[in-house]
Amino acid sequence: MPMNSIIKQIISLRTTLWVNSFLFYLKRLWIIGKWIPDSLYSHYPLKRILACAAFLIRQLIDLAGKPLYLFFFVLLPIQMLIAKRPSLQEDSFSLMVQILFFLNCLLGAFGDSQIFTVTRDKITLIKYMHTDARSYTRAALVLKYVPFFLCYLPFLILFSGLLGGTVLQGIFLWIMLAAFRMMGEAFQLFVFDRTGKVYNRSMACSWAAIGTGLAGGYLLPFLGISFPAAAVLLHPVLIACYLALGGAGLYYIAAGYREYGKKLPRSIDLNFLLSTMLKTSSGSSFKEVEIREKDVEISSSIRPHSSSHQGYAYFNSLFFARHRRQLIRPVSYRLLIVGALFAASILLLVTNREAAVKLSANLTTLLLPSFVYIMYFLTVADKACRAMFYNCDKDMLHYSFYRRPDTILHNFRIRLLHVCLYDGVIAAALCLAAFLFCLLAGTSVFTMDMLLFCLTILLLSVLFTAHHLCLYYIFQPYSESLKIKNPFFSTINVMMYVLCFLCLEIKVKGSAFTLGVLAFTVMYIALALLLVYRKAPKTFRIK
Hints:
There is one protein chain. By secondary structure, the protein is mainly α. 77% of the residues lie in helices and 0% in strands. It starts with a helix and ends with a helix.
């Protein structure tokens, strides 16, 4: 089959999947979903328009992603390094070359691979439609890398000029990145051909690439260890070597390798994926919550307490008793963090008492915005939800009695109280640390300021617990393959993070910020609970 036809098939499959996913989740939106008929799935003229729009939006996102990447991962770090070490000002372009070499040429090229990326269109075309694997690989590489590097070139030249480089150096930098990407693809294909293993699915290899990339790109310049990267890496002789090696890599993956049809289908075989990719997936987000044999043995000190419950209360009591290691240990670590913050406040009190007294007298104004952001990370609710799914709901949701509305809501109430207790202990420790700090600083602790501060911290712990648990029950974002399938779940989580981050930039005098946070917290918790009671009985299903 001609490559043009395969490219059209890939684009058609991808856009169809995007449109169907969009319609699927649009139908599940509150209020809006009621107006979306099922017949829309078969409305082909409209779906063709949506498919074209989806393809164009995807290209615009890819185009916009390049300057954003260069801005956040190259330009901003360089400015921060220069602020710390002004002597690096004249080496700005060299720093850019060094960062991109370690991040893109090493981490990007050897930590990722288009050839071994598992996508739904790849499985459909190769496994079910029996498309020639070699032709598919060529088409997929063209779709990935042609727009990828065409979008990169103008922005590399632009950012090179901003940091003191020339147009030619920008082009040389582009050649280096493209050549290393081809070498990385060829290397990983060679390893797979010789060993039968996918290099970038190995946790050890992935972490080695990440560590090398971050250390070389950021840590070495931070420590003052740098080299004339632009003069060395962009030397014309090395550019000629890049072109030769990159060309050889491109030839090998596009024309030289003859075993695609025989060996590549195995890399997307279900058993192969379960033994590699899915274990890696569970290792990154679910490995830390899996049950060990010793967790099943409940100590005698806990068993009487558990046996006093009945029904689902007993069921959940056993669940949390068997997850002491996964949940209580993180709470202990967070308490250590609170202790470290308290120790830092005591150090401030000893070294600069005037500043410490001023800080203690203005807790809600000076510290509360930071603690909104800190509390987002101190909650253990996200980990608790992953443990609930991985060790309980993933299997129990196959039974009809467990999917009954009264059962779902009853379990939700019990779990909310349990997880609120975990996060409440952390919040109470923060309040105690603030109380003791003010007491040692000589500031009155029986004030409205202190009361509002403690009340806000405690309510924030409830907010973030309710946030994670409610999103889990409303969207149930995980699939049996342990992947997050619901884009609204990820989007709302990102929005909450951004909101907490923006709190760091808010400068409001008096108690206005505190009262605003309290009002938002109460309304958010009430709305989240209302949505759970209305939506969870319909949406809390296995996917």
